[in-house]
Amino acid sequence: MSELRYEGRVAIVTGAGHGLGRQHALELAGRGAKVVVNDLGGDRSGAGASAGPAQDVVEEIKKNGGEAVANPDNVATVEGAQAIVQTALDAFGKIDIVVNNAGILRDRSFKNMTPEEFDGVIAVHLRGSFLVASAAWAHLREQGYGRIVNTSSPAGLFGNFGQANYSTAKMGLVGFTKTLAHEGRKYGIKANAIAPVAWTRMTEDLLPAANADALGVDKVTPLVAYLVHESNEASGEVYTVGGGRVARILVAEGPGWGKKGDLSVEDIRDNWEAINAAEPHTVPANVGEQMGPLIQHLGS
Ligand code: NAI
């Protein structure tokens, strides 16, 4: 089979100064894409800023014979997101691919989490992904082509102690991705999300050190690169990926239980087992499909 290449494509990768984003940028550039390497260059909590990390990755790409340009702006501000997109337009004349990857952690048990800790994490992951995609959207629509990958997390999909802010942002990105997939369909834009597991500065004190290599960032990037390739047909999907394993995550609905006429609290109690049944489940592709069983119930 032929190698997947990205010649003629322009990619923006946010938070590409370290970790997963750096690997995404190196891989796409190594396969012929022109890449905007964005990174604010702060620490894991988002404190501080430095143009160094983005610049270092650009130099690495150039040393390997690729094309890239650095951008040190903040994804969480309107001006920053617009500047990131403008960097792509100025340097390469267009945009084809957006990988929303930038992220920070401000973990705290819910009891102690402050509104500032909540807002700060939502701002980078959720609002930042919105702002960058939003700044790129008109260009993608106009050219009738685009590939977007948003970075969710198992913590968002399933919850995780100490991460009420982070998991809210990460599950928010699932809804965001699915809606972009619907709105982008007739313009050739495909949007998907990943829920990765990898050894980076974000997880080095959470994951066992013995697994550092097995959970390398290079075990996540191939999925991202595939999802942003022109041959990818998937859209609105979420994939968990790490250590060389990839799986589709399903937002599914059980068979349910229903009755006509009055519904009492006791009806709910008495049918709790049927309400909670997981099989046979459906995986609705949109709200229309999700409404199907309700419409059938009302009509039956
Ligand atoms: P990382 O800390 O190595 O990389 C995140 C990058 O984003 C950093 O280089 C940072 O400077 C940059 N960044 C932070 N705020 C920014 C802003 N406002 N504007 C521009 N750049 C900004 O961490 P890692 O692990 O590579 O994380 C990448 C993404 O993957 C994040 O969204 C993270 O939440 C997500 N993720 C990672 C997991 C893992 O196991 N490493 C698990 C689940 C999700």
UniProtKB/TrEMBL annotation:
Residues 9-205 form the Ketoreductase domain. GO terms for molecular function: oxidoreductase activity. Keywords: Oxidoreductase. Coiled coil: none annotated. SMART domains: PKS_KR (SM00822). CDD domains: hydroxyacyl-CoA-like_DH_SDR_c-like (cd05353). Belongs to the short-chain dehydrogenases/reductases (SDR) family. PANTHER family: DEHYDROGENASES, SHORT CHAIN, SCP2 DOMAIN-CONTAINING PROTEIN. This is NAD(P)-dependent dehydrogenase (Short-subunit alcohol dehydrogenase family).
